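Late entry, evening session. Most of the bench is empty. Finally got around to the prediction I had been postponing all week. Sequence below, unchanged from the version circulated by S.P.
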Amino acid sequence: MDTVTPFQYELIYNAFSFTFAAMAAATLFLWLSRSQVAPAYRTALTISGVVTGIAAYHYFRIFESWHQAYMFKDGVVTVTGVAFNDAYRYVDWLLTVPLLLIELILVMRLSRAETNAKTIKLGTAAALMIVLGYPGEIATDLGARALWGGLSMIPFIYIVWQLFVGLGESIKQQPVAAQGLVRTARMVTFASWGFYPVVFAAPFFGLTGGSVETAIQVGYTIADLVAKVGLGILIFLIAVRKSETETVDGKAYAG
């Protein structure tokens, strides 16, 4: 376990606590908002709430593990000897990252064939990206971290290509009123996911000990908030906008 300063300990502690609350609140919001959109988009909101719900659970576990790994008393941080379990993140990502792509595909309401094809391709690539990244995360030397990080970038690049090329024509098929929001959701997904490799590479920037631990934990936490809560809100807004422009049973949907 790396030694951290009181400031670093409290920064990470409060980041975990805030993110747990934000994920839990987003879950309630997304599930309770299902009645405000047309039936065709309720599955997307349900899955988005599942994503933040899974993340809320894991952030609670991460928060508890951090609290058990360090003791902060009288202004001094000491290591308790209980290992901080950072594997909760990768378990969370293995479940939620494929679902993040699926919720974006579902809210676009593509044809059944296109939905199935993109769900399988992107979901599989997302899971592979996480599986390949984990050995690098726990590696004790920079060479192994670089190797596994590089391998993880292969499915990541494929996902980015699919988001910008594969979904490009599909976005043009969306209602004009919703196209801007869909493009924003795509960009938020790309930007937040692109931040993870930067955080992963923190040890290569000369950071050590508590500094690298703080950069990794806070960096991943910020990326999670944007990728899950931020995207979840956008999914809701897209669903509302599309519900307003489409019809249900021959009449404009009014909620």
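Two things to note before I forget:
Helices lie at 6-32, 42-69, 87-108, 112-137, 142-166, 168-172, 176-200, 209-245.
Residues 6-244 form a domain with the Rhopdopsin 7-helix transmembrane proteins fold (CATH 1.20.1070.10).
Will write this up properly tomorrow.
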